[in-house]
Amino acid sequence: MNLYAINNGNFMLDGGAMFGVVPKSIWSRTNPTDANNMCPWAMRSLLIEDGNRLILIDCGMGDKQSEKFYGYYFLHGDDSLDKGLKARGFHRDDITDVFLTHLHFDHCGGAIRLEGEKFVPAFKNARFWSNDLHWKWATEPNKREKASFLSENILPIKESGQLEMIEKTGRFSNSPFEDIDLFFADGHTEAQMIPLITYKDKKIAFMADLLPSTGHIPLPYVMGYDTRPLLTLDEKELFLTKAADEEIILYLEHDSMTECCTVKHTEKGVRLDQTFKLSEI
Q: What is the pTM of this model?
């Protein structure tokens, strides 16, 4: 098995929204803002090469939305999915599986592209993986999350016939992939899937929006975007305690500065231990 970090580009979000009730005077120590209170964030996928399978976990915003839409998120940098794949000797047509942690636009927008006037899968040879609980949540969205679940990102996946569903059998569940287990988290959105990958006798967790950055490690640091913040707090405590106990490596999708980290137990609770690149494992 080989693992590759793929950066799909960078964007900006309001710092207050990203840290909820925590005061800016505290969270800005780790996540500084610009003059408009915006913080930079990454859209970092994980590419898994395992035998004849090439699995992509999440795929960024994509490029099919309007200029006005992208203007809200201040896209910057020259990273892209295609550029990242090419640098590692791959093409999007080589992808066999696209695993979607959840269906918010910054995680799944790249799954669908606009071909003429038709929305089609951006990975024509891949199966797309979600789960029934989250799919229903995303296709019948509540008013608070509706702006994050864009129908043009989601419905064409099912219409293509390439959609597969994973069964949730408990908080920790199996996946269709060898050496990948799942942790289901419901605080950010219903049935978000956190993959736990066995690699070189280590466990690597793709943290998605359960832990956007190292700055979110303290338990009360919960995004304002989360639908059930108290549940997120409990899920973070459960998962980060496990990560500290078992020395699980945390792969960060949105941290613009840090790809991977570990955590440790301290008198103040679980805190950041080491930071490093995926290639250093």
A: 0.95
